[in-house]
Amino acid sequence: MLRDKFGREIHDLRISVTDRCNFSCVYCKSADPKNYFPHRDLLTWEEFLRLSRVLAGLGIRKIRVTGGEPLLREGVVDFIARLRQIDGLEDVALTTNGYLLPEMARELARAGAPRVTVSLDSTNPEKFARITRTPRSYEKVMAGIDAALEAGLRPVKVNIVLVRGFNDDEIVEFACLARRRDIVVRFIEFMPLDADHAWKRELVVTAKEIVDAIHPVFPLEEIPRHSASETALRYRFADGQGEVGIVAPVSIPFCGQCSRLRVTADGKLRTCLFSLREHDVRPLVRNGATDGDLAAFMKEAVSQKERSHRINEPDFVQPSRTMVYIGG
Ligand code: SF4
């Protein structure tokens, strides 16, 4: 079992399979990135699969496939199908901006129907285009959510990064969406991982504010956590019309039970979303390391896992690697 020096068991892996994205969301990627990784620096599907097998052998039980935008990388559906074949893996999930889901939802369903999380930061098409800096994106994403539901992908979760002054006026509208559709709406507090370094504490809409906005309109009941490492606070509507979740890394950090490890598209192990140092596994993978060598390398990296992020500390330093290169 992968366990860090604070006794936390690591059983969730997030794999960023590409740094490319067809959106340029204001809280994530800079408007015109020219610094994509050269293709030769991106791990191949075989390399990702090998790392996944070694890590499954060390207790990883859940893999979330992220990006950039993972559906942009050719072969991702087959990759998900092969992840499903790995012994010990219990769960495969996908985080996508949904733009390519109308075309790919059925393929994904055939490839083992990963749980799907779609980013949807506004219910207003114009505002959505402003947030993603991509015209006519809202309609495609909504069609993507429909296609995922029609293809039988479940659950379908919708992530909303709330930024004060941008989309915090839509909290109740998003709650309505969760009541109307067979989707789980999850609000996420804005985190300091954006390429433009525009993050400020006053732009964060906290979990308390979100509950205070919804509860008077649609009374909420808190749902006890399934597992200690679950990141979202969950609330059901008291009248039974669905549920919402809140991921509150800034106002209610959950680092104490963190079970996550990340692999970036260019082969860096990150033991925390806010790590200031990385562990480069690509040279090992490409220069004859055995699975035993890789396992030892992973254990060593996890033994150095940070206790927590330091967003609320005066000495907080935003990592140089931004969200689009980590994948959440
Ligand atoms: S901030 Fe780091 S330590 Fe905290 S929950 Fe996220 S990955 Fe884990």
How does this model look, in words?
The chain is an alpha/beta fold and 328 residues long. The protein has one domain: Aldolase class I (TIM Barrel), CATH 3.20.20. Helix content is 27%, strand content 18%. Strands 7-8-9-6-5-4-3-2-1-10-11-12 form a 12-stranded mixed β-sheet. Strand 8 and strand 9 form a beta hairpin. It is globular, with a radius of gyration of 19 Å. The two termini are 23 Å apart. Iron/sulfur cluster binds next to loops.
Defining key terms:
TIM Barrel; 328 residues; binds iron/sulfur cluster
**Domain module count:** 1
- Average per-residue pLDDT, rounded, comes to 94
Q: Radius of gyration, rounded?
A: 19 Å
> Strand fraction band?
15-25%
Number of strands: 12
Give the assembly state of these chains.
Answer: single chain
CATH class call: Alpha Beta
Query: What's the tally of helices?
Result: 9
Q: Could you tell me which ligands this complex binds, including any ions or cofactors?
A: iron/sulfur cluster
Unreliably modeled segments: none
According to CATH, the homologous superfamily is: Aldolase class I
Could you please say which CATH topology applies here? Answer: TIM Barrel
Percent helix range: 25-40%
Spatial ordering of strands, largest sheet: 7-8-9-6-5-4-3-2-1-10-11-12
Distance between the termini: 23 Å
Query: Can you name the CATH architecture?
Result: Alpha-Beta Barrel
Largest sheet: 12 strands, mixed
Structural classification: alpha/beta
- The helix/strand series, from N terminus to C terminus, equals EHEHEHEHHEHEHEEEEEEHH
Large-scale geometry: globular
